[in-house]
Structures are given as structure tokens and as C-alpha cells.
Amino acid sequence: MAGASADFLRWAEAYDVAGPEQRSLIGHETWLAAQTAPVLRLDSSARFDDLVRAVTHPYPGAFTWLGDRRLFVWWARPAPAISGLAPGEMRVNDERGLLVGTGEGALRLERVAVEGEAECSAIEWIRGGGRLSGEFLGKARQ
Hints:
Blueprint: H1 2-14, H2 25-33, H3 48-55, E1 62-66, E2 69-79, E3 90-93, E4 97-102, E5 105-114, E6 120-121, H4 122-127
Antiparallel strand pairs: 1-2, 2-5, 3-4, 4-5, 5-6
């Protein structure tokens, strides 16, 4: 196992600078340039709301996990940081709706859909029995 891990780390360290002789950034860029279907590129340094807009309708949508189900985020906007709000933690705020903590502030969820359910406003979802403050979004629960 240690040998496989070391091999992977060597490959990963070389990914950005290696040529086409191995799986690398230049190899992937060459392959992407030859694709005839639309390619969606996401830059993780972008603001969260920009990333959500990049993958919202008609694309598959931005999602996170709510227990063992996906929560699709169809519209969101940045919100000021809330004291004590941890990344992934949800908080219902009367003035600002449904907030989720991020690494840098908060995200106000505007439109959501739990997997298998209809899209609705975050406020409608809360009123219809959606989750409460203090619950966390993130990894699928095993």
C-alpha cells in the first residue's frame, strides 16, 4: 500500500508540469480541446455564488449532501459571516433566510431541491419540514 501511495504522490506532484508521456495537465487540455460536446470548467477560486450560477439550470446543478440524499442548490448568494456558523452548518435566520457557513463567510440559499423532490424556495423548503438550524450539509452519511 505504501508503494502505491508513493507512486500516486509522485504522479500528482508532476501533473501540472509533465508532458504527454503521462496523465498530465497538458494531456488533459489537449484531450479537452478535441471534444465536440460543451465543456463546463469550474474555477474553485471563484465566489460560491458564481460557481452555483455556472452549474444551475440547464446543467446538472450544484449540490451537496443532506444525510444520504443530495440537496441541489439552484440559486444562492453570498452573505456576511455569522458568528459561530461553522462551514456546512445551516442556520435559519428570520432576516436573511437559510444560511450555510462556508470557509469564508456564509451562503444564503435561495432555491433548493432535495433529490427526488420538486424545486422550491429555501423558505418554502424550511416551512415544508426542511431541516433546522444546526444541521450540517456535506459528505453523504454512510
